[in-house]
Amino acid sequence: MTASRIVVAGSLNADLTIYCERLPAPGETLHGNGFAVNPGGKSANQAVSAAKLGGDVTLIGAVGNDANGDMLTASTAGAGVDVGNVRRVAEPTGVAVISVDAHGENSIIISAGANATLTPADMTPSVFDGAGVVCLCLEVQLETVQAAAQAGHDAGATVLLNLSPYAPITSELAQLTDVLLVNSHEASEFLAGFAMPTSDAPVSAWRGALEKFAGRGLHQVLLTLGAAGSVVLDSTNASAPVVRIAPTVVDAVDTTGAGDAFTGGVAARLAAGDSLVEAARYASVAAALAATKKGTQTAYPSVAEVAARL
């Protein structure tokens, strides 16, 4: 089967990362033990992950006329991503300030910069022609995300929405979303405080969440649980509406961008024709391997690396 094209629309950021023994408490200053500037941004990360995993990827976004913009376009293009629809603008390239502790956990603050200039007008229908998967997140304006979802829907693509960083979405965007990807915290917020089952809960405990999502018009949901794996909630699959995906155990060095590696892996395998469960299992390995190295895009595994672990 020939894989269909993937369109990723959204953010590109320069990641300014400080490594430290632990994350600082409010008002506290700590000494770091390393600093790096790396290419990042959720959409750029997802595009690179999907491309490294064999996807034919087009990225729509905006960067500044600055060194960070040069770095980001070089990194994404170097991974095989089509960057012909990444605009250069007067505003500075978006930035993420990241702290990573000795256990690989992180805290992140983003400044949109050029990402805020991306508008619905950038979602040219012709760019979406022939796309099999459209991959979106919420690091750009919601109206832009919805325009991309509409363009993907009109093109007959599977619209994959990563509800991160969390923000409420319109009912129209929910209806345009074919697969929703969330973590447990985001899922609880989206479902108005609904208590998610614990990571060790039996499969049957997830049926309440399945019904809640279906009530919001979302019938296929991938819910990530960090080191505990993930859960596929699929109300369209009568025989297996809830499937637990076991974690891939690794020694984590830096979890920054691991969720984007997961999203990119899902997009790549859906574009290749895998089922949602198959895509989630594959992406789980990709995300785990990404966490074994520092950084984001440079840490993302290749097809061969994932195949070796599978």
Blueprint of the fold:
Layout: E1 5-9, E2 13-19, E3 34-40, H1 42-52, E4 56-64, H2 67-78, E5 82-89, E6 94-100, E7 106-111, H3 125-128, E8 131-136, H4 142-154, E9 158-162, H5 171-176, E10 179-183, H6 184-190, H7 207-215, E11 220-224, E12 230-234, E13 242-245, H8 258-271, H9 276-290, H10 303-309
Helix pairs in contact: 1-8, 8-9
Task: Label this structure with key terms.
single chain; 310 residues; alpha/beta; UDP-N-acetylmuramoyl-L-alanine:D-glutamate ligase; 9-stranded mixed beta sheet; 4-stranded mixed beta sheet; 10 helices; 13 strands; 32% helix; globular
Explain the overall architecture:
Helix content is 32%, strand content 25%. The chain has 310 residues and is of the alpha/beta class. It has one domain (5-12, 41-93, 117-309): UDP-N-acetylmuramoyl-L-alanine:D-glutamate ligase (3-Layer(aba) Sandwich), CATH 3.40.1190. The strands form two sheets. It has a nine-stranded mixed sheet, sandwiched between helices. Strands 3-2-6-7 form a four-stranded mixed sheet. Helix 1 packs across helix 8 and helix 8 packs antiparallel against helix 9. The two termini are 20 Å apart. The relative contact order is 0.16. The mean pLDDT is 95.
Report the biggest beta sheet as strand number plus sense, adding barrel if it closes. Answer: 9 strands, mixed
Structural class: alpha/beta
- CATH homology-level superfamily: Ribokinase
Instruction: Please give the order of strands in the largest beta sheet.
Output: 5-4-1-8-9-10-11-12-13
Instruction: Give the helices and strands as they follow along the chain.
Output: EEEHEHEEEHEHEHEHHEEEHHH
Mean pLDDT: 95
